[in-house]
Amino acid sequence: MKVSRRMPTRVSNQELRRLLAKHVKDLTIDEKKIGKHALRPENTVNVFSDRGPQESKLQFTPTRPVVGAVAHHLDVGAFGAALHDKLKDNVAGYTVQLRQHGLAVFTADWQWAKRPQDGTESWTPDVQLHVASVSKLITAIAMTLLMSEKNISPDAQIIDYLPDYWVKGPNIQYIVFRNLMNHTSGLTGPNDLQDFQEMKAAIAAGISLDPNKGDHLGNYHYQNMNFGLCRILLTVMNGNISKGANFTPLFNDTIWDMVTIAGYAQYTTNNVFRPAGVFGATLDHPDSAALAYRFPVDSTSWNSGTLESMSAFAGWHLSVDQVLDVMGAFRRGRSILTPEAAQQMLDNGFGVDPFVIPPPDVPIPPGLVTPAGELYCKNGRWHDDPPSPQTSYHEEQSLAYFLPQDMELVVLVNSPVGSPEEFFRDVVTQVYLNNLTTRLTIHP
């Protein structure tokens, strides 16, 4: 089924220019493109993303370091060999880099970002892939920075920054920024991916405060719309558009969608990517970006396309080098946030996924405690709808880890992992845990 929500054009370009000049600041919106803007482009129909930690098939047990015992650390050489052994026969291709103190200590590439029939491009750390929900980590960094700049608390109510023309359903006034960035808002939607109008409908439907219901405020439930809403809030907070902006009922949704996409991309580019020395991050799908494949690999490939309509919860096309550059600048530099503010963001669980979901009303640990220290991870997964149950997905997958020992790890693969498919985060996390040691090791 094709869904491409386009709006009719019944307002003159001159009137649209007047409305844009009145309501939109420091952004350029081409009024000629408004009538052609699709709120839900066809390339996002019958597409699916990760569903958070509920996809994990392993039960990882937090293991605290023993006081007075010899400290554990990662055997980098053994880790690299074990990871390659695990992935090489189970993916179409991969690229990985591990950095410590911002310097590469392990890099490996395997097979094709584009197979020979699609133009022949080998995997390297500078090849971009759609990193899917790793985009949420980028969004969390941008939101944390802007909220600090505007002196807005994570416990401030989001209702003060939602469009005035949206209907606010029951209990929306109780949702705070923290609830969005750690998936405890109680918001739900009918689809795996939510566009602008579906997010608007979810706000109109409201949320439950009843702890006996499955979805309620404070209960962890991974939902893409939590971060999709962040691009709307960010653009209002940044002053690119006032929450009272009105472009006539005919064009409100379309223009608000276009403005918040542009505002989110501009702020993130200027304040997250550029301070990290990252150029070329895009919501588009460049010709040089990797393609997605099935596993076992067949003759077909998939280009997931431009994903600006899914921005903030997905959409960014980045390379291993680019993700690591952002992570390093975020964690230990001061060009984006202070190291203290960065650590607090991780400890709040903003933009990373928990490994353990505790019973209701028990605080959710944001990372996984290991004998070497606590690690934090964000995974991304984006795939099409297979033609039959016997056929695997075309899939894009990404993992970004903040590890103990001042290490960061990023892995990209352009297919499912194994057949039957294994959860990518389970695979890499287990390899990491298996190669923690107390022995003296030397790596290049």
SS-based class: alpha+beta
Overall form? globular
Tally of DSSP β-strands: 12
> How can the largest sheet be summarized?
8 strands, antiparallel
How confident overall, as mean pLDDT?
94
Helical content stands at: 25-40%
The DSSP helix count reads 10
**SSE run:** HEEHEEEEHHHHHEHHEEEEHE
Low-confidence stretches: none
Radius of gyration equals: 22 Å
- Tell me what portion of residues adopts beta-strand conformation: 5-15%
Distance between the termini: 53 Å
Verbal overview:
The protein is of the alpha+beta class. It is built from ten helices and twelve strands. Helix 2 packs antiparallel against helix 10, helix 3 packs parallel to helix 6 (224-237) and helix 6 (224-237) packs across helix 7 (252-273). It is globular and about 70 Å long. The relative contact order is 0.20.
Detail the topology: elements first, then pairings.
Layout: H1 13-23, E1 47-49, E2 73-74, H2 76-87, E3 93-100, E4 103-114, E5 121-122, E6 129-130, H3 134-149, H4 177-181, H5 196-205, H6 224-237, H7 252-273, E7 317-318, H8 320-332, H9 339-347, E8 368-370, E9 373-384, E10 395-403, E11 407-413, H10 424-434, E12 436-437
Antiparallel strand pairs: 1-9, 2-12, 3-4, 3-11, 4-5, 6-7, 8-9, 9-10, 10-11
Task: Pick out its properties.
444 residues, eight-stranded antiparallel sheet, 10 helices
